[in-house]
Structures are given as structure tokens and as C-alpha cells.
Amino acid sequence: MSELTYPENLKYTSEHEWVSIEGTTARVGITDFAQDALGDIVYVTLPTVGEQVTAGEPAGEVESTKSVSDVESPVTGEVSAVNDNLDDAPELVNSDPYGAGWLFEVTLGDGADLSHLLDAGAYTAGLE
Questions:
Q1: How far apart (Å, rounded) are the C-alpha atoms in residues 10 and 64?
Q2: Nearest-CA neighbor of 87 among 47, 46, 55?
Q3: Closest residue by Cα to residue 105 from 53, 41, 31
Q4: Is residue 86 helix, strand or coil?
Q5: How many CB atoms lie within 10 A of CB 17?
């Protein structure tokens, strides 16, 4: 089994979501730890484009052969894109959680508070 990875360029939540922020756009997914714990992902429910999401509130679900888990939005803003590829290939969340397996993007509002997000070191420390 390969070792789980946590890219240094991303931010994380204690609920096992990752976020990549470029300008006012935040791309969201679940971490390698989360996809590994869930097992084979068979279905993903995503928010709709234009929907308002709130940091720490459920914005979607990931269903695996073991369970259904909420995906909490790590940021507050408006959903600007969803990964439609997951409709036909939810297993991308398992095989490439930080790339092709991303879930949705959020346009951040003015003054978005990102101080609650963890860096890779703080996130992995919380896993131990």
C-alpha cells in the first residue's frame, strides 16, 4: 500500500477536506486520509453551481461501499464549478484525490476568513 500524501501547497480542515486557493477561487476535495478511510467511492453528491456554501457546513456527500460521509465546505462563498467527471467516475476521488478527484470550486467573498484552515504539518499532526 502506498503512503498517504498531503501536498504542502494545500490547506486542510480537521474534517479531512483540502482546499487550494488561487486568487478568489477555492478548489475543494477530500484528503488522501479521507478517501483511504472511506474505501471505494461509488457516488458523489455535489452542491449546485450558484449555491451559497458556508465554512464548516455540509456541501455534499461522498458515498463509499462502507458509508456515506458529509463533505463540509472549508470556505464560505458561492459555488462556481463542480467536477462533473465524478458523475461517471467517482473512483477518481480514490485514485487522484488532489487532482482529477477534486469536488467543487467556490468563489470567495470579500474578506473571506481562512484562518481556521490548517497547513499540511498541522493537519498530519492531528491524524496521529
A1: 24
A2: 46
A3: 53
A4: helix
A5: 22
- What is the rounded CA–CA span in Å between residue 106 and residue 85? 17
Cα–Cα distance measured from residue 90 to residue 53, given in angstroms and rounded to the nearest whole number: 22
What are the cell numbers at 122?
498541522
The 3-state DSSP class for residue 115 equals: coil
What does the longest C-alpha to C-alpha distance in the chain come to?
42
> Which grid coordinates are listed for 108?
470567495
Q: What number of residues does the chain have?
A: 128
pTM of the predicted structure, to 2 decimals: 0.95
Are 99 and 128 in contact by the 8 Å Cβ rule? The answer is: no
pLDDT digits 0-9 by tens, 47-97? 999 999 999 999 999 999 999 999 999 999 999 999 999 999 999 999 999
Residue keyed to cell 462533473? 84
Distance separating alpha carbons of residues 99 and 35, to the nearest angstrom: 13
